[in-house]
Amino acid sequence: MVSYLTKRLLAVIPIVLFAIFLMFMLIRLSPVDPAEAYLAAANIHPTEELLTEKRQEFGLDQSLIVQYFQTVKKIVQLDFGNSFVTNTPVWQEVAARMPATIQLAVSSMLLAIIVSVPLGFLSAVYKNSLIDHFSRLLSYLGASIPQFWLGYILIFFFAVKLDLFPVEGRGTWQHFVLPSVTLSLALIAIYTRLLRASVLEELEEVYVLYARTRGMKEKAIMVKHVLRIAIAPMLTGLGMNLGKLLTGTIIVEQVFSWPGFGRFFIEAIFNRDIPVIQSYVVLAACLFIVCNLIVDIVQMYLNPRISWKGRTEY
User: What region holds the ABC transmembrane type-1 domain (predicted)?
Assistant: First the structure.
């Protein structure tokens, strides 16, 4: 296990370096001048003298290779510079907004798991029953309804018409309901279908028939064996979506005016706040890698047919 974790952690280095390189090149290929963007964000008229001064301050007068290695050096030191808009360290801005995004991501993920696991499992066990048809309908709706449209519909009915939940902001548990439901519906659609298909596939395996012939209770077969192995594809989806949620649920945060990292990133794009954009790219890459590594480790414990050597053993 130690060697496996070491290899996976070492693999993080080239991935992060590639993400930094891609971000660096896209920013440099963009027609937006970072010096001009800084002055525009500060509401300062960009004269040639000021532009030259800021380019020297940002190191833009040096070669691309030197600029790239300086960028990597600063990022390794967790130095993303100051925001062009607020003129405060980017890490302070991120630290102030990440708790809101983490809370929304965790609540949405928990709601998706609570609904999709029993629904997907029961729809497979009772195939073509009423609950199976309901799960299919819910999956189709969740996969087809755009999040921004669903958010506005929930706001119109439950906030404006019925006045049950607040429209925007963050504070009480009531503020989490509408954005969490908006985020989790698409996840429920994906996880329910994944788990249903996986359970149906596992029910055709030989070990299920063997366990039944040995006289094992049906509940023990389903929960201890079938569900434990069938949940692996769903865990993979959890790893991908958790990284996505933690880096900012951009559309939902905009709709509900949620003070999270995703909304901050959108504002940074409009304001051409390059240090914030750089921090978002690096943080997103690291979170995706870490979340998928955690999911891989959990899968290896749940499914004994997967070995630490990276192959499936039967």
Answer: 98-299
Q: 59 is written with which tokens?
A: 């190191």
Q: Give the pair of three-digit tokens for residue 287.
A: 């979170």
Please, are residues 126 and 118 in contact by the beta-carbon 8 Å criterion? no
Output phi, psi for 133, to 5 deg. Answer: -65, -35
Question: Cβ of 168: how many Cβ atoms within 10 Å?
Answer: 14
Question: What is the DSSP annotation of the chain?
Answer: -HHHHHHHHHHHHHHHHHHHHHHHHHHHHSS--HHHHHHHHTT----HHHHHHHHHHHTTTS-HHHHHHHHHHHHHTT---B-TTT-SBHHHHHHHHHHHHHHHHHHHHHHHHHHHHHHHHHHHHTTTSHHHHHHHHHHHHHHHS-HHHHHHHHIIIIIIIS--S-SS--SSTHHHHHHHHHHHHHHHHHHHHHHHHHHHHHHTSHHHHHHHHTT--HHHIIIIIIIHHHTHHHHHHHHHHHHHHHT--HHHHHHTT--SHHHHHHHHHHTT-HHHHHHHHHHHHHHHHHHHHHHHHHHHHH-TTB-TTSSB--
Tokens coding 93: 């801005």
User: In whole angstroms, what is the distance from residue 193 CA to residue 72 CA?
Assistant: 42
Phi/psi at 204 (5° precision): -90, -5
Domains of the chain: 2-76 (no CATH), 94-260+287-302 (1.10.3720.10)
